[in-house]
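U., I forgot to send this yesterday:
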Amino acid sequence: MLNGYVIMPNHFHLVLYVSSEVKNLSLVIAESKRFLAYEIVKRLKQQKKQGLLEVLQSGVSTKEKEKGKKHQVFRLSFDAKPIDLSEVGRVLDYIHRNPVSKKWQLVQEYVDYPHSSAAFYEGGQEPEFGLVDFRGLLPESSESSNE
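Result:
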């Protein structure tokens, strides 16, 4: 389940709660990226963003083209780091502040960045697309000590 996110110009951060029943995180991520890529391409077509579609088409390897692949939306790798539930608040704070880091300066206040879960956590904004508050996953003693 999605607990937090920040979508940056050239990368994104996700905080996901993954059940212990999930044995192959790579497969879950690969499938998620595949369906997300379909949606991105569909929306780019709807918006007639031909230039971006051409960039995504140029990224497909010859071998993948032979298999019928038309667009390369994501890099083929990802970087996952397991974190304890007690660390999620700290990690979210770090990723939420990414848009105002020295390198980016995309907004003045990190809670104003529209492609982030910061406004949900900091400003009480309604959650988008199935965002689940991680604080509901914490044991009661941990949750009350974080307030």
